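Thread amino acids onto this structure.
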């Protein structure tokens, strides 16, 4: 009779469960750091949005965004992270920043 693979992490060998837990704790810590870093980033971009609104500058800055995307792609490559993924993430963040800037400009 062939041994079936474990169905859940709780069915795994204790040493495997311990390593899985250790890795998951690291992931949880990294996720927390990412959230805190994004919060700090958005605090800065809110200030940018207020400054732009005060001086009637447009919410979006396509040239700056293009430079940031190119920069992030290079950083991703050097970190061995998929540059396309990094670009998608930054585009998502930029869209949210622009939305915030538009809201600030309307208020």
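Threaded sequence (107 positions):
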């Amino acid at each position: 009779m062939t041994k079936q693979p474990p169905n859940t992490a709780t069915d795994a060998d204790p040493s495997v469960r311990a390593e899985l837990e250790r890795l998951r704790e690291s992931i949880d810590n990294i996720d927390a750091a990412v959230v805190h870093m994004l919060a700090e980033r958005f605090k800065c971009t809110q200030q940018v949005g207020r400054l732009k609104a005060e001086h009637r500058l447009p919410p979006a800055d396509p040239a700056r965004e293009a430079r940031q995307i190119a920069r992030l792609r290079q950083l991703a490559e050097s970190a061995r992270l998929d540059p396309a993924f990094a670009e998608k993430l930054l585009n998502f963040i930029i869209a949210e920043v622009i939305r915030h800037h538009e809201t600030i400009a309307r208020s």
